[in-house]
Each structure stands twice: as C-alpha cells, then as structure tokens.
Design brief:
The complex is a heterodimer of chains A (424) and B (489). Chain A is of the alpha/beta class and 424 residues long. Chain A contains 13 helices and 12 strands. Chain A starts with a helix and ends in a 12-residue tail after the last helix. Chain B is elongated. Classes of the chains: A alpha/beta (424), B mainly alpha (489). The interface between A and B is large, with 75 and 86 residues.
C-alpha cells in the first residue's frame, strides 16, 4: 500500500511500483511467499520541528588544548612546557598567546576565534579541563566513549533523536559529512552520511535510475545476511539523500557576508553544512571531522596550521550563516587532552583532561567555563595529566536541553550526574 | 537516447513480461537465479584481490589444496614479469610510490595470497605516509612481503625496526631524558595485546623507556633493496632496569647492545596469549567474516600458538578449516574502497590500467593503503565501508569506469564479448553478472535488469553489432557494478 507522499515522490521517476515488482518477483521465482508486506522506511513526511541545529566538530587524534587555550597565567605552565609552551601575551619572543583572561591565552593562529571570544556579547566560549572518569588514553576507545557518551551500544546523538522522535520528523535529522557514520549517530534512529554534498546526484540516464531504485527499494531483504541488508539500505539512503538535497550545489554556492573558508577538508565540510542549514530542510545535527591532532613530536610546527584552519573555518562558518547562526551551536570535542609536560620529541603524549569550544546561538561566550583544577603537581592526575574536572556530557546536555529544546537525559546520558556549566 | 517510459508503461511491461516468461513457450529464461557461489570462487574472493580468469584457471587446473600450497610459497611463484616492471613504474621516492606499488601487486601479481597478507599486515601495523619518508613505506611493504608467511615475532620486529614505524610513532625522537610513549602504547594496544590486553599505564611508560634510542638511518641515502635501515643510538638509550607488570623485566643493557632490550620485549609480547587471541581474531575477520565462527577462530588460534606464531601454518589452517566454506561466510564481507576498485579492474580483465590514475580513484574512496592518519588502521569489518557516504563515490567510479571517463583505464569490451554476441537482455545480464558479481543476485534483480536491457535493445536494429550495443551495455554494466551485491565479497 502506497501513501500519497510516496506517490508524489515517485512521480519524478517512472518506475515499477512496489506491488508490480513483487508480483514480478513472485512470477519469476514461483515463490508467492515473497510478496509479504515490505518494511521499507517511510521517511518522506514533510514535518518541521524547531529549526535548531547543532554541529559537532571532532578533533581526531587528541588535540593539545593546553596549547590552543593555554593557561599561561599558571606559573607551572612554563615549567611543564619550557620549549613548546605558548608564551604569555606581551612576551618578547616565542609563540605568544592572545589574551583571553588573567589565566588563559589563545594560540596566536586562532586570531579569528579569539576576536569572536573577546567581542562584546560574545557567543563563543571555552570549557576547559573536560573529560570523564575513568579516563582512557586509547585513540579509538576514547573516541568511542565521547561519541557514545559512556553508554555502550549507540551514540548520544542517535539516542537524542530516538527520544525526541515524533510522527512529523523530517526525513533527515542527522547528517555526517564523512564517508562512514560516526558512532555518535549510530543506532536505531536512521542517520545519514555523505563524503561531500557534491556526491549527491544520480549519474546516469533516467531509466537507469528507475531500475536501480526499484531494485534497491523493492527487493525484499528479510532473511538476507546482515551486510547484504546494509548494502540495500545504503543504496536506498543514496536515493533519499539525492532527492532531499537536490537543491544543494556546493560547486556554485557563494558564501554570504564575504566569508572565506580555509582550504582543506574542515573548511569544505563546514561550507557545505552552512549551505545546507540555510536550505532549511530540517537537519538538526551535523558531524564533521578535523583529522590530524596527534602531535607526539614537533608540536609547535604541526599544530600551527591545524589551529589556524580550525579558527578560520569556524569564523567563516558563522560569518556565512549571519543571522541564521542564532539557531546554530557548534561544539568541538577531542578524545583526550595531552600530557601536561612536553616530551623529548618536542611534542606531548596522550593525556586526560581536554577542552571544548562552544559557539553560536545563545552561548554564554567570552569566558573559560567550568572548574579549572590548575596545573600544580597536586592537582595533576598521576603528576602528569590535567584533571577532567568537567564532564563533557554536562556540556552536551546543556546544548540539548537549552539550545535544542529538551531531551531525556536519563536515556541520552545514563548514569551521568549533571553539573551545570553555564555555557548556555 | 533511451526511450522515456511512463510509470504505467513500466509497470505494464513488467507484469506482461513476467507472465509470459514463466508460463510456457519462452521458458524460464528470466527466472533463472545464479547458482550459489562455488567453493573455488569463495576461496578466490578472499585469497585474491578478485577472481579474474587467470586465477580461476589456476585454481581449476591445480585443485584447491595444491593451489593453496602454491600460494603459500610465493617465493616459488614466477612473478618476474611484474616485479621487473616496478622499477620503471614509479620512482620509489615519489610520495605515492608505495600506494602505486601495492596497487600493481594487487592488480597484477600472481602471488595474490601473499599480497593479500601484506595488505593486511600493512594495515595492522598501520603507518601514515604523510608522517614518514615516502620510500620508507615501500621498504616496509617489500619487507613484509619477504616475511609474510614467517613468524609473527619476525614480522613484529620488522615493523618495530622499519623506518616507516620508527618515524610514524616517534621512536626516532624517543630519548632517555623525556621518553615518547607513542610507539610503546600502540605496540601493546594495537599491534599485540589489544586495548584490554592486561597492560597498565606504568607498563606503557616502562616500555617507552625500553625503546629509547631506537632510530633509523636516512632512508633516502640507501637503496630500496637494503635490508634494514634500523639504527640504535646508545647515547639516547635509558639503560636502567625496567619491569612490566605483564611479567617481563630487564636489568637494562648498556652500550651498543641496548636495543636487545627491545627485541626481548617484542618477543615476549609476540608470544603472549592475548596477542594470539587478538591477532587471530583480526586475521579471521579479514579473511573469513566480520563475525567469524567461534570454533574456527579457536582452531586457528590453536595452530598459531602451537606453531610458534607461524603465519603460513595459521593462514593454511584458516582456509582449510571445515567452517571456512560454510554458507554463512560466503559473501559475508564488504569490499573496502581499494578492494572495490581492484576487483573491478581484475574482473573486467583490464590488462594495463594506469596505476597512478587508479590510485587517485582509490583516494576518492578514502582507501589508499598508506593514508590512514591514526595508528589504528582502516577497519577490517564491513559497516564502516557501507552507507551512502561510501556508496555514492563508488557509484561515480563505476559509472566513470564503464563510460571510459577514467583516463588510462579502458574496459576491453570486445575481448569480453567475442562473437557471437549474447542475444536479448537476459543473456547480456547473465553474462555480465557472471563476469563481475559472484554474489547470489535475487531473481527479481536479474529480471529487472533484463527488462531494462531489452527496452534499450528494442531501439536497435535486429542483430546489432557490439558498437551499436555498446552505449547500452555501458549503462547496464554501470547498474551491475552499483548493485548492492557488487559491494559484497
């Protein structure tokens, strides 16, 4: 049985309908039992919810937040990082930080973000010394823990989508601009990926699309092996995304407000996110990656272009969004911070406490928020690691509860004891 | 231009055709689903980068047991035609040399199982070529090839002393006064014990001290054939005693022999039961299934342990295991991007594709062998290679390939289809499916593709030439390569 919405959608392509395809299948195989009801997802209702958006930027590799948002006012800092450390504002030499407040300076390559941080009524803030307990210093384990928010199985974004789902859900509520789905979006609620929005076009003659779509959507997959079922779902997703985002065209998109995105994957991804946000298609969550933060060696040279790219991309993103940025919050996270003391390679090894940047919307910016444990030897864990004083889940919970309009914390962040951060 | 069909036209034609073809004179020519995958094709799908005609013929001629044994002794397989051409293929100092050489071996080598193994080892001991000297990756791959069926301990040491690993995980700057933990941590977490393998943070710190002073000579001044670039700098080495909670210790070795501490620790880790568990599980996920049968894994692990980690015995046991051939394992895996591209090239029988062009295509599928930035390596399992984010770029590759839009990579249509040509859509479809997709494809799909092709053929004169069919054959082939089953392995 087809819905009107389905009919309308299928009008663009003259293809076999579901009943015909099944009848054909039954005739072809002689197996009438094939024609059971299809459990195809109907995600083409046109409902709209509040157009609030959250963009998650994952700094893969374990960003050294003690050099991005450096506690230069802490006397221990220069002792722990004699060669690679950021120098306090006004220093005559070295990599000199940009003043944030009495304790912190920002990496000078992040001048654009710094300007937003210090602007009047700033809506860009930093939460420092974030993490979780018990901590983990494995890249992939800790990335998973951030993305499942310490609840194994599915992701925090997916759980939020589950608990806030209504019959009026738009077809795509969560989109990752990367080849594979991040764990944060994995789970029972349908989420989607695209390596770049430029991929969203069907290549081929119209009749090719008709038949491939029919094969993908109408073949009964019950009883197929798991990977084969997933391959069918992947094909269906391709068609759904191609249709939904037909109006998105990164090749011809011109950013607003004179925004200039930096070269590289992060700038490209955020540009595509901005274009899609402005198209107002109901997508609430975007996930993008910023790869390359694992600086065990030569940190000073390596982190500079990364910091600049991050800063310039965030600045361009909100410049481009303009007034639409009032509905958008961007949050960064990374799987861990680094050891407070530099190693002999001019870099830093895997540590614990890190930091998150939160920007946009009604963010209470211009401040470094959360409890700051400091870098005294007594405050460091094992004498080496910044204490994870502020649970990253508290930041995410504020975003969901205050910016996104509410969630079910017990389901999305099970076992988490909330301590308000005040970033929103 | 193909005819534009209305929705009603298509539906009517479908039912009419299906009725006609299942009720009498036209026989059941549309109704025949491909037979289940044969055992030889199942083996070839895992032991090679694509069952091309040559591989199928070799397997048929030798029989499975002999073929497997032949492949397990790659040094005895004549591959001079390929190996001799590599020197002129690409300068080993080029940034993408190792990627292109890996592609050359995957596409052309007769030592398919060995290169399958190197592909696995390269990813298990993942190094990112952006953080190494380009030639280091070439050196490492060639070294892995020479020892790919030796012992795990040997391969582990080759990795530890390889210039690529020395650079990538910072052994090169690991010094006594302020050790760098990068290699020590990933050695235990990723290369041997596994993240829950029983080591502590203190063990990471101690192991980092063991590897202080490990370094390399300048690889660029050496030649590719030099066996080792490893260098030990005793003046950077912490020669104090070290103890790991796992049950290994050293009083510390001073002087030029200090690197023997590292050798000892590597051997200890290679022989650790948790290493056997983790490595064999990963190997079975790679060669058998994302969820390999528990008892198969246990039996293979037993062989790994009893043979002292011998990789030839381990891989042989895996392929000979009774459960390997179980239907549940057939086509239970998903191609990664590299495999999808190479499989297509081999199955088409594209004899001399431009490998640098292919490498660029693999890059668009985010799957170049030395381009994973973190030490974890690419996933062995299917889901991260599925989803629209992966599939859409593959569709584009497939369509570009069959429409001759990828320069230097040409599908040999006239070789694939010698006269007499197939007659009718169904014959074209079954021929293509047999050639390109050895998964079982649902009968409805076969029928749908056949009707598509018939509708295209109906615009041509009777008994069309290949040139006349070709535009439509390209489109049909594009569809075949995009079928969900075409992504399975």
């Amino acid at each position: 049985m087809q819905s009107n919405a389905d009919d309308q959608k299928n009008n663009l392509a003259a293809g076999p309908d579901r009943r015909t395809f099944l009848q054909m299948g039954a005739l072809a195989t002689g197996a009438m039992g094939l024609s059971g009801p299809l459990a195809a997802r109907d995600r083409h209702s046109s409902g709209r919810r509040t157009p609030k958006v959250t963009v998650v930027v994952f700094q893969r590799g374990g960003a050294d937040h003690l050099n991005l948002y450096a506690p230069t006012g802490d006397p221990n800092y220069a002792v722990l990082r004699p060669t690679i450390g950021i120098r306090p504002p006004g220093s005559p030499s070295g990599v000199v930080g940009l003043a944030m407040n009495a304790t912190f300076s920002m990496h000078p390559a992040m001048s654009q973000v710094h300007a937003r941080f210090t602007a009047p009524n700033s809506n860009l803030g930093i939460v420092h010394a974030v993490g979780y307990q018990p901590f983990n210093r494995s890249h992939f384990e800790s990335q998973d823990l951030y993305e499942n928010a310490l609840a194994p199985g599915d992701g925090w974004i997916n759980r939020h989508l589950q608990v806030t789902s209504t019959p009026l859900d738009p077809p795509v509520r969560a989109l990752a601009i990367r080849p594979s789905l991040p764990l944060s979006m994995s789970g029972t609620y349908p989420c989607f990926t695209v390596a770049t929005m430029q991929d969203l076009a069907f290549i081929g003659q119209p009749d090719m699309r008709v038949w491939l779509e029919a094969i993908s959507e109408l073949t009964p997959t019950a009883g197929m092996p798991a990977q084969q079922q997933l391959a069918y779902q992947s094909a269906i997703d391709c068609f759904d995304l191609i249709d939904l985002f037909a109006g998105i065209n990164p090749a011809t998109y011109v950013p607003s407000g004179g925004a200039v995105y930096p070269a590289g994957a992060l700038g490209q991804a955020l540009k595509e996110v901005a274009e899609t946000i402005k198209a107002n298609l109901g997508v609430e969550f975007y996930a993008v990656d910023h790869n390359g933060w694992d600086h065990h060696a030569n940190l000073v040279t390596s982190i500079n272009p990364m910091a600049q790219q991050l800063s310039d991309a965030i600045h361009a993103f909100f410049t481009d969004l303009g007034a639409a940025g009032a509905d958008v919050v961007l949050v960064t996270m990374s799987e861990f911070g680094r050891v407070c003391a530099e190693n002999g390679s001019g870099g830093t090894d895997h540590g614990v406490g890190g930091a998150m940047l939160v920007a946009g919307g009604a963010v209470n910016g211009g401040a470094v928020r959360g409890f700051w444990p400091g870098l005294s030897s007594g405050a460091l864990i094992s004498g080496r690691y910044l204490a994870p004083s502020n649970d990253f889940r508290s930041v995410l919970r504020e975003i969901l509860e205050i910016h996104m309009g509410g969630t079910d914390p017990a389901t999305v962040f099970p076992g988490h004891v909330h301590t308000p951060i005040g970033i929103l | 231009m193909p005819p534009r069909l209305s929705r009603r036209d298509v539906a009517r034609r479908l039912v009419t055709t299906a009725r006609k073809t299942t009720s009498g004179h036209a026989g059941t020519r549309y109704a025949v689903a491909p037979p289940p995958l044969s055992f030889p094709l199942h083996v070839l799908s895992r032991a090679t980068f694509g069952a091309n005609a040559a591989a199928v013929a070799e397997m048929q001629q030798m029989g499975f047991d002999s073929w497997l044994e032949w492949q397990l002794h790659p040094e005895a397989i004549d591959d001079q035609h390929l190996e001799g051409s590599l020197a002129t293929l690409i300068a080993p100092t080029a940034n993408n040399a190792a990627d292109i050489r890996m592609l050359a071996r995957a596409v052309h080598s007769r030592r398919q199982l060995a290169w399958r193994m190197v592909y696995f080892l390269n990813n298990h001991f993942s190094t990112f070529r952006g953080d190494t000297q380009p030639i280091s990756e070439t050196v490492e791959d060639d070294t892995f090839f020479k020892r790919c069926f030796s012992d795990f301990a040997t391969v582990l040491r080759l990795s530890a002393t390889s210039p690529a690993m020395i650079d990538f995980l910072d052994s090169v700057s690991n010094i006594a006064s302020a050790p760098n933990e990068n290699y020590a941590r990933e050695l235990m977490e990723l290369h041997t014990l596994g993240v829950n393998g029983g080591y502590t943070e203190a063990d990471v710190a101690s192991a980092a001290r063991v590897f202080t002073g490990w370094s390399r000579v300048n690889v660029l001044t050496g030649t590719v054939t030099t066996s080792s670039y490893f260098q030990f700098r005793a003046n950077r080495h912490d020669a104090g005693s070290k103890t790991l909670s796992l049950g290994w210790s050293t009083p510390g070795i001073t002087g030029d022999s200090g690197y023997l501490e590292g050798y000892s620790l590597l051997n200890f880790l290679a022989a650790h039961p948790n290493t056997a568990t983790r490595f064999v599980d990963k190997l079975c996920k790679y060669f058998v299934s994302d969820q390999p049968p528990v008892n198969l894994v246990l039996r293979v692990r037993q062989v790994f342990v009893s043979s002292g980690g011998n990789l030839r015995d381990t891989v042989r046991a895996l392929f000979l295991d009774a459960e390997f051939a179980d239907a549940v394992n057939v086509k239970a895996k998903v191609h990664d991007g590299f495999e999808y591209v190479v499989n297509a090239v081999r199955r088409f029988g594209i004899s001399s594709p431009s490998l640098s062009v292919l490498n660029t295509q693999v890059g668009l599928l985010r799957s170049q062998p030395h381009q994973f930035t973190l030490p974890t390596g690419y996933p062995e399992i299917g889901p991260p290679w599925q989803g629209s984010g992966n599939v859409l770029p593959r569709w584009k590759f497939a369509d570009n390939l069959v429409h001759n839009l990828i320069g230097g990579v040409t599908v040999p249509w006239s070789t694939m289809f010698p006269l007499p040509l197939p007659v009718g859509g169904a014959a074209w479809v079954s021929s293509l499916l047999a050639r390109l997709v050895d998964s079982e494809v649902p009968a409805t799909t076969v029928l749908a593709l056949s009707i598509f092709m018939d509708s295209r053929l109906s615009t041509l004169p009777a008994n069309p030439t290949l040139t006349q069919v070709l535009p439509h054959l390209r489109d049909l082939t594009s569809l075949v390569l995009r079928l969900p089953e075409a992504h399975l392995n």
